């Protein structure tokens, strides 16, 4: 792998006017973990109670590699208990309750999340490695916002789909990934409950901690037992949920490979399915864009959450006439990114979620070097312990390179160029994925025409990675189908006749 010489590092600092780089540093500003509470061991949350499990596995803090707590891995029998609890709660309580009453519970969960926002943010950062700045300012506020937003729809379903009769589906089985653990749980649970369903949720193996806090919140909100059930475990537990005959709807967020397994597994059954899968988003910079703002958008697009973002702007398409300027400014800005302790409020880039993910990033970056792309990495120093990766950018990337085609899911950007808007659109669409894209231009007409030609569920104009509970999110092609957020996100949990 290419490493930079001292000379190259110095020249980047000169470009940036950051000569103080090695001489001056921010004082550490770590968030205190003193007031956070969690158990040393968690089983599952079934029928309103925390129950013991059988086999336990640890979850670690990826920034320190220290064990935080142990979690049980649910087998088929434990998943069956959770599904039965959800079925009984659906038949006996939740489906019979007045929608306005259901709304009160969902609203209460949202309010409790707001009250506990600080604790939830710290735990999310400890368990997953994301910077506290992001869990505090993005993840947890959005989690609360999703519950509050869907609470508002719970008693207005007949107005949501005028002229149609709507009814709930039954028990939803939901499986989520590790990149936005509590936010993905909120995206799944809030619309399901608002539509009148009960749920069995499985968080990812490396980030189960905040899901157990959500379980505590459900208890505190007095949610009727069995309406929300959370089982811990790995892929086998997820498969047991998906394959359980009494699940009526499967909602999955994760990799395209597992999405395909699930789609095959439930083909021919009565189960409804939504899949939110991977992506390889194009962030397109036209020569007439405000370049400094675009560079901020590129940084936000690829380095947010260490690049563990399904809709990351991981393919940068830059118009040829401005590529040198964009790449130079990008390198300067990358040098100022602070990589390190995720609990430090000054940190921009935290820890890679797991050793396995770090190895995957190393492997894909090596393939980029081997295939002939040019690698540039920030000269920052990395902590000695934990899983960290330098902000990286590849130039001289060809469409055929793996780093231009495959999801790296790390802080690694691939830069390609184009000459005309037509070429930009073709290149942007030249991927099996279709989740997200960004367009940067001073011309509104160009922005709208390019946006219309891109096969992606979300297209941002002169911004990137903006989310709102009222705005639907989801993919085309191998990025999956179905939408989360907004009215579109309610529909997959309803029978609309
Ligand atoms: P993953 O391996 O597909 O895992 C996702 C979840 O599925 C985890 O809870 C996992 O359990 C579970 N699982 C694994 N095998 C399963 C099986 N055979 N049946 C049922 N469940 C199974 O994905 P990941 O690597 O954790 O997450 C990263 C991926 O998620 C990326 O591709 C990213 O793009 C995608 N993602 C998409 C969106 C979106 O909205 N489109 C959002 C976030 C992430 P374990 O805990 O054992 O892994
Ligand atoms: Mg963890």
Shape: globular
Distance between the termini: 58 Å
Bound molecules: NADP nicotinamide-adenine-dinucleotide phosphate, magnesium ion
Which CATH class of the largest domain is shown? Alpha Beta
E-strand count = 20
Q: In terms of structural class, how would the helical and strand content be classed?
A: alpha/beta
Going across the major beta sheet, what is the strand order? 14-15-16-13-12-17-18
- What is the second-level CATH architecture of the largest domain? 3-Layer(aba) Sandwich
Helix content: 40-55%
What would CATH call the homologous superfamily of the largest domain? Aldehyde Dehydrogenase, Chain A, domain 1
Beta content: 15-25%
Low-confidence stretches: 1-5
Structure characterization notes:
With 497 residues, this protein is an alpha/beta fold. It folds into two domains: 41-277 and 479-496, Aldehyde Dehydrogenase, Chain A, domain 1, CATH 3.40.605.10; 279-461, Aldehyde Dehydrogenase, Chain A, domain 2. 40% of the residues lie in helices and 18% in strands. The protein contains 17 helices and 20 strands. The chain has helices at 6-16, 76-94, 99-115, 117-128, 132-153, 157-160, 181-194, 209-220, 235-243, 256-266, 291-303, 323-335, 355-370, 402-405, 421-429, 444-453, 486-490, and strands spanning 41-42, 44-46, 49-51, 55-61, 66-73, 166-168, 171-175, 198-202, 228-230, 249-253, 272-276, 282-285, 315-319, 374-377, 392-395, 412-418, 436-440, 458-461, 480-481, 494-496. Strands 14-15-16-13-12-17-18 form a seven-stranded mixed β-sheet, with helices on both faces. Helix 16 links the parallel strand 17 and strand 18. NADP nicotinamide-adenine-dinucleotide phosphate (NAP) is lined by residues 175-179, 202, 204-205, 234-235, 238-239, 242, 253-255, 258, 261-262, 276-279, 310, 407, 409, 435, 475, 479-480.
